[in-house]
From TrEMBL:
One of its GO terms (biological process) is mRNA export from nucleus. Pfam families: EnY2 (PF10163). GO terms for cellular component: nuclear pore; SAGA complex. One of its GO terms (molecular function) is transcription coactivator activity. InterPro entries: TF_ENY2, TF_EnY2_sf. This is Enhancer of yellow 2 transcriptional factor-like protein. PANTHER family: ENHANCER OF YELLOW 2 TRANSCRIPTION FACTOR (PTHR12514). It comes from Mycena chlorophos.
Amino acid sequence: MPQPSAAEFEVLMAQVHQRLLESGEWDRIRLMLATKLNDSGWTDELHHRSKETARGMATNTLSFTKLFEETLSMTNGTANAGNNVPNPVRREVTALIKTFLDKQFE
């Protein structure tokens, strides 16, 4: 089977996202993810890193956009926020999405 083009892949992703939203599965997965990240301490660590980043910015250069970009990028030598998601949480969310996709495309 040939690989889809980037445009075809984007269309497919939009369709999957729409199905997740319509089925209510998106909200269920999002809530589970938020709970697991909070339980693992990831959320508190992200808040702490964001506060430290904000404190390190000069008052006249402090902006939400800059803080957001700093938080998502390399901060204090650690990988970005998304790459720091604990593996068990990542695996659980991935399994939920895979199960949903398997049901959708049987």
